[in-house]
Every structure is written in structure tokens, then in C-alpha cells.
């Protein structure tokens, strides 16, 4: 089954330094990033191969994991390994500038694209849930999402609170792999945050790693802590959001900002119903899965109703990409759930129109000093970008590395290629100790079709058109990324999204210069294309000013 594993397995840590266990740096990078995804400091449940986001896995089962590692170690510089939903299925002769790994995860023929079919196939060992960066081996812990979350809250501050969250209270839920970034992103924007979480271990982990300031065991205690705080404070409140949100309403307490990052996209695994401990929830899930789903939906309805009521009373509410609204709309006939907006149309789409998105990189040396050097390079390359400077400085101060040292910042079309080439130069000149891996989330400008999230409310109504991520994956393959992935169901769940990922290795060679320049230009360029095609003026302007060749826009 998907969970099969030997009983005891030593913790996995990526190798560091310059000694290769593979035949080239691209294979080595894939190996290290796969292992890094499963490092206990990075993954949420490494013993089950689960990296983050509900059940997002890095490999289908332990036998597949071992076979992927063995195959990467023998893979030649002109061969490509194919991964089918976490299982290594073939090696073919390609050529040196081709991707070393091509990955397809969780894809189903559309008519079969629902959780019931998926779970049945998963139980039979035929597929796995790849989430976004879990199955495509470029997850870097909660930092990966901190920047996007920071940017989102900064935009909330600009649009609604005069540019700062000072003196505001955000109430949210979920301190998992992604959601764990929320309290830090809020305090980085100078606001207070109460993040409700049912699992005490998750709160402890976020407090230990500096993502959340303190834990509270009751709403009163949380409110008191915030009341007494001198500066911005984040509180991890042990509780169930489906209890806390109505409790706020009852007390007439209207938070300034409300969102949510429970794993609502996955009814069966991602959202604990009210009245159930983690253990009781697990028991019911096992004994009567349909009854369990029903309890979850009851709680989600209560939760969403409270959000809508608090929105009526003046709270700024947005869906944070977990399909909470979609679940109650589709399974409880509650279309009014969409009366509060998704975060992409509200805050992120203007960035996508400029080809901006979550550019991330990791130091294969394992040396945090290498990230310091790349940070300086970014600051030197883009002196005019004040918000970027603020982010890098705050990140240096507040972000604890998990696994291989890594960094993320949002860069636009043109900027990403510039940064990639500069990093390759650092490697070539020996200014960093080993090659740098450059990748991104699938939540990006040109790489995702997800009508309840990234492509919600597109100007031309093209929300559900999934050709764009397919083109993106083919384009990145043609350009010579080091590995390329095409997934279904990440973020919002099976049936709701199609998306693509890419990773490129800066190993200091001239060939890497060529590949990086092509990939890091075309990849965000495909996002400018997608948004210009949908009619966004800002994307058309970006294409015209920066020379993106779009036959029916500026051809
Ligand atoms: P995760 O599964 O690691 O964490 C979810 C957390 O929610 C868990 O800690 C769980 O204990 C908690 N939880 C569940 N039910 C709860 C309840 N009723 N009350 C309080 N806490 C509860 O998931 P993650 O990686 O943090 O992702 C969270 C969601 O955000 C997922 O749906 C994911 O797909 C989505 N996501 C959003 C973005 C984004 O950019 N906004 C990016 C990636 C993923």
C-alpha cells in the first residue's frame, strides 16, 4: 500500500558538501532535494513519506523511494528518469541539456478526477498525492510560504489598513507546513495574530522554530496575551477553529482580518471536526469514513457561516487557498461561501501579471554562509526594490533554516533570469561552496490552473482552462530545466487543479548559463502570456515593455 514501510528507518538527511554520490550535479541535486523533503526538520510526517499539505508525499512508498535513490545514483548525464506518481518507472536516453527527471503526479482522466476514485487507486498502490512541491522535490519548509504570506498580508495592510497591520488582530487556523508561516508573516507586518490549531505538537513545533511566539490553551488566555503585548505578538491557540470562530461572534469580537489554512482541501484527512480529539477523529475516520466526512462538513459549515457573519460586521476576510469555500459550496450547497474572496484575485494577481512569483533556491553545500552570499547578490542586483530589501533583511533575522539552507523571494519576469545567471557565476567563481538549486512553488504566474484559487475569477472567464500548466511544463522541458513535474490536485485537492513545477541547477558551467537563462525567462514569461491572453492590461504592458512575443497581443 502507499504506506508500506519497514518498521524502523533512520532519519533522512540530504548529503552536503561537494562530494558527489551521483554521476552529475543535476542528478545529485534531485537526490539531495528528495532527501531534504523527507528530513525530519523539513517534513511534517517523514515516517509516512509525507512532506506537507495533508498527505503530500515525496515518493509512493519506501520501496519506490529506495529505487528512486538507487536510480538517481546510476543515472548518466544523457539519461532521463521518469516518475509516475512517486514511482520510478523508466530511464530513457535523452541528451545532456534535457531534464534528468520528469515527474507526473496524481493525474487522473478528468471524469475520474475526484477523491473517491483517487483514494481507491491510492489504496491499491497505483498513485500518490503529490501536493505541489512535495512530489516535485523542492519543498523548503515553512520559509517557502512565508514570503508569499508576508506579501499577501502586506497587500492586505496596503489595501485596508494604511500600509501596516500595527494594532490589528488576525484570526486564522492551521499551523501545519504552510499554515505555520501565518503568525510570523503577520508579526513581520507588525500585527497581532491568533492562529487556532487542534494539534499541540504543531503549535510546539512552530514556537520552537520561531514561527509563532507563544501558546495559549483558551481564547481568554490568547486575548489577554495580545492585550498585554507591547509589540506585535502571535499566539498559537490550542482549539478547534469551528468552535473559536463562533465564540468570537458570540462575544461580539470582530477580528480585523480572518483567513484559514487548515487542510480543508482534504475532507478525510485535513480538517478535524468539532467535538473530536485527534485520536477520536482518527478512530471514526477509520471505522466510518462517510460519517466522518459528514461531521467534517458540519464543522466547515459552522466555520464558514461565522466567517460570513464576521465579514458582515466589518472583518476583512479571504480564503487562503485551501478550498474551504469549495467544500461547503459543493457538498453542502452553500454557494454564498464565495461571498468572501480568494486571496489570489484579491491580492496576488497584479503580481502574476508582471511575471512575479515565488523564486526559491537552496545551497547544496549545506552551508548557511552560501545563502548569506546569495542574499547579498540579490540585494546588489535589485537596489531599487525596497520591499525586497526589507524582506531579505527580516528573513535573515527571523527565519530559521530547516534542512538545507534556502531562501525565497518573489521576482518578476526578467529578474529571475538575471538572478539565476548571477548565482551560476557565484558557483563558477567559487564564491559559494557548491552548486545552487533554483526552483519555485507550483503556485506561480504561468504554472497553474485552479479555479478556486490561482485562476479564480479570471478576467475572461478562463478559470478552468488547464492548457496553460501543460504548456508551461512542456516549455520548461524544452528549455532544459533539471527536473520538471506535472501534477493534479495540489493545494485545493483532487479534481480542482492542474499545475506544473520546475527546478534548475546552477552548477557553474556554461551549459548551466544557457539552460538557466532559457528556463528562468520562459517560465515566468508563460505567466505574462497567460495573463495577457486573459486581457489583463498590466500583463500586456509587461509583455510590450519587456519584449515577450505574443502573436495575438503584440505580434
Ligand atoms: P497541513 O496538513 O500540514 O496542516 C494543516 C493543519 O490544520 C494541521 O496542523 C491540523 O492539525 C490543523 N487543523 C485541522 N483541522 C483543524 C481545525 N478544525 N481547527 C484547527 N486546526 C485544524 O497543511 P499545510 O501544508 O499547512 O497547508 C494548509 C492548507 O493550505 C492546505 O489546504 C494547502 O493545500 C493550502 N495551501 C495554501 C497555500 C497558499 O499559498 N495559501 C500554499 C500551499 C498550500
Automatic annotation (TrEMBL):
Q: Where is the Urocanase C-terminal domain?
A: 350-544
The record describes the protein's role as: Catalyzes the conversion of urocanate to 4-imidazolone-5-propionate.
- Which biological process annotations from GO are given for this protein? L-histidine catabolic process to glutamate and formamide; L-histidine catabolic process to glutamate and formate
Domain Urocanase N-terminal, residue spans: 12-138
Q: What are the record keywords, sorted?
A: Cytoplasm, Histidine metabolism, Lyase, NAD
Cofactor, free-text remark:
Binds 1 NAD(+) per subunit.
Q: State what protein this is by name.
A: Urocanate hydratase
What does the entry list as the binding residues for NAD(+)? 53-54, 131, 177-179, 197, 202, 261-265, 271-272, 320, 491
SUPFAM superfamilies reported in the protein's UniProt record? Urocanase
GO terms for CC?
A: cytoplasm
- Xref: PROSITE patterns: UROCANASE
| Reactions catalysed according to its record | 4-imidazolone-5-propanoate = trans-urocanate + H2O
Residues annotated as the enzyme's active site: 409
| Keyword RNA-binding recorded | no
Enzyme Commission identifier(s)? 4.2.1.49
UniProt cross-references to InterPro entries, sorted A to Z: Urocanase, Urocanase-like, Urocanase_C, Urocanase_central_sf, Urocanase_CS, Urocanase_N, Urocanase_Rossmann-like, Urocanase_sf
Family of the protein in this entry: Belongs to the urocanase family.
Amino acid at each position: 500500500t502507499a504506506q508500506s514501510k519497514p518498521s524502523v528507518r533512520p532519519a533522512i538527511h540530504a548529503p552536503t558538501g561537494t562530494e558527489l554520490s551521483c554521476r552529475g550535479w543535476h542528478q545529485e541535486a534531485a537526490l539531495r532535494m528528495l532527501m531534504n523533503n523527507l528530513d525530519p526538520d523539513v517534513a511534517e510526517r517523514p515516517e509516512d513519506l509525507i512532506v506537507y499539505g495533508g498527505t503530500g508525499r515525496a515518493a509512493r512508498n519506501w520501496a519506490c523511494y529506495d529505487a528512486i535513490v538507487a536510480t538517481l545514483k546510476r543515472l548518466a548525464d544523457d539519461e532521463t528518469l521518469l516518475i509516475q506518481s512517486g514511482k520510478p518507472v523508466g530511464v530513457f536516453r535523452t541528451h545532456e541539456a534535457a531534464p534528468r527527471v520528469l515527474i507526473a503526479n496524481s493525474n487522473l482522466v478528468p471524469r475520474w478526477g475526484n477523491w473517491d476514485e483517487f483514494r481507491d487507486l491510492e489504496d491499491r498502490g497505483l498513485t500518490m498525492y503529490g501536493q505541489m512541491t512535495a512530489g516535485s522535490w523542492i519543498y523548503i519548509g515553512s520559509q517557502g510560504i512565508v514570503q508569499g504570506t508576508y506579501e499577501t498580508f502586506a497587500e492586505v495592510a496596503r489595501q485596508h489598513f494604511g500600509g501596516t497591520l500595527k494594532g490589528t488582530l488576525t484570526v486564522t487556523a492551521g499551523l501545519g507546513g504552510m499554515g505555520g508561516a501565518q503568525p510570523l508573516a503577520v508579526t513581520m507586518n507588525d500585527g497581532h495574530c491568533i492562529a487556532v490549531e487542534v494539534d499541540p505538537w504543531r503549535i510546539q513545533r512552530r514556537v520552537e522554530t520561531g514561527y509563532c511566539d507563544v501558546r495559549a490553551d483558551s481564547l481568554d488566555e490568547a486575548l489577554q496575551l495580545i492585550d498585554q503585548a507591547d509589540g506585535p505578538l502571535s499566539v498559537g491557540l490550542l482549539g478547534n477553529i469551528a468552535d473559536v470562530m463562533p465564540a468570537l461572534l458570540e462575544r461580539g469580537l470582530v477580528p480585523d482580518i480572518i483567513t484559514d489554512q487548515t487542510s480543508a482541501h482534504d475532507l478525510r484527512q485535513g480538517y478535524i471536526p468539532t467535538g473530536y480529539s485527534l485520536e477520536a477523529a482518527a478512530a471514526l475516520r477509520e471505522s466510518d469514513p462517510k460519517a466522518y466526512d459528514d461531521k467534517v462538513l458540519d464543522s466547515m459549515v459552522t466555520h464558514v457561516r461565522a466567517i460570513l457573519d464576521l465579514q458582515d460586521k466589518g472583518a476583512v476576510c479571504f480564503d487562503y487557498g485551501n478550498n474551504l469555500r469549495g467544500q461547503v459550496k459543493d457538498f453542502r450547497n452553500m454557494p454564498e461561501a464565495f461571498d468572501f474572496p480568494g486571496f489570489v484575485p484579491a491580492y496576488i494577481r497584479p503580481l502574476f501579471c508582471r511575471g512575479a512569483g515565488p523564486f526559491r533556491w537552496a545551497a547544496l553545500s549545506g552551508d548557511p554562509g552560501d545563502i548569506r552570499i546569495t542574499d547579498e547578490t540579490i540585494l546588489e542586483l535589485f537596489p531599487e526594490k525596497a520591499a525586497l530589501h526589507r524582506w531579505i533583511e527580516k528573513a535573515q533575522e527571523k527565519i530559521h533554516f530547516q534542512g538545507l539552507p534556502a531562501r525565497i523571494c518573489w521576482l518578476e519576469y526578467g529578474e529571475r533570469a538575471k538572478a539565476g545567471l548571477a548565482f551560476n557565476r557565484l558557483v563558477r567563481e567559487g564564491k559559494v561552496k557548491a552548486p545552487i538549486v533554483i526552483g519555485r512553488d507550483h503556485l506561480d504566474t504561468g504554472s497553474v490552473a485552479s479555479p478556486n484559487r490561482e485562476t479564480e475569477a479570471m478576467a475572461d472567464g478562463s478559470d478552468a482552462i488547464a492548457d496553460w500548466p501543460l504548456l508551461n511544463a512542456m516549455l520548461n522541458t524544452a528549455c532544459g530545466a533539471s527536473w520538471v513535474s506535472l501534477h493534479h490536485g495540489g493545494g485545493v485537492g483532487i479534481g480542482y487543479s492542474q499545475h506544473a513545477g520546475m527546478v534548475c541547477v546552477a552548477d557553474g558551467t556554461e551549459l548551466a548559463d544557457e539552460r538557466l537563462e532559457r528556463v528562468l525567462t520562459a517560465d515566468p514569461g508563460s505567466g505574462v502570456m497567460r495573463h495577457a491572453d486573459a486581457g489583463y492590461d498590466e500583463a500586456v504592458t509587461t509583455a510590450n515593455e519587456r519584449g515577450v512575443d505574443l502573436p495575438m497581443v503584440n505580434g
